[in-house]
Amino acid sequence: QVHLVESGGGLVQAGGSLRLSCAASGGTFSSYAMGWFRQAPGNEREFVAAIRWNGGSTNYADSVKGRFTISRDNAKNTVYLQMNSLKPEDTAVYYCAAAYFPGVINVREKYDVWGQGTQVTVSS
């Protein structure tokens, strides 16, 4: 089973960009579909983006389409989330997650392994 560690969060002004990274260890990274989720205070954890094990397919929440891009480098056991044109409503703790699943999946309950999260704060 993989272990996931996120990095790259921080404070950014509205309209700015951040790139989150999620490094995996202890398992066969390329066997897992990967996803990014986020949770703002008082809200449930929501789907942001997902990518197939080989990077061949991706899926995004409507709220981030055209602004966020998920990618992965299986040689580096890392998945990324490039976030552009950030808005204050993107403020949340961002989590990466792994699912032993052959396709792309946006269902939180299907993900087996979670990272500890990284805070993203977008100021207006």
Describe the structure.
- By secondary structure, the chain is mainly beta.
- The chain is built from no helices and 11 strands.
- 0% of the residues lie in helices and 49% in strands.
- Strands 2, 4, 5, 6, 9, 10 and 11 form a 7-stranded mixed sheet that branches. The protein has a 4-stranded antiparallel sheet with strand order 1-3-8-7, with no helix packed on it.
- A hairpin with a 6-residue loop joins strand 4 (33-39) and strand 5 (46-51).
- The N and C termini lie far apart (40 Å).
- The mean pLDDT is 96.
Give a concise summary:
Helix content is 0%, strand content 49%.
Can you tag this structure with a few keywords?
124 residues, mainly beta, seven-stranded mixed beta sheet, four-stranded antiparallel beta sheet, 11 strands
Query: Which residues form runs of ≥5 with pLDDT under 50?
Result: none
Share of helix among residues? under 10%
Gap from first CA to last CA: 40 Å
Number of helices: 0
Shape: globular
- Beta-strand content bin: over 45%
**Order of helix and strand elements from N to C terminus:** EEEEEEEEEEE
Structural class: mainly beta
Tally of strands: 11
Give the rounded overall mean pLDDT.
Answer: 96
Task: Describe the sheet with the most strands.
Answer: 7 strands, mixed
- Compute the CA-based radius of gyration: 13 Å
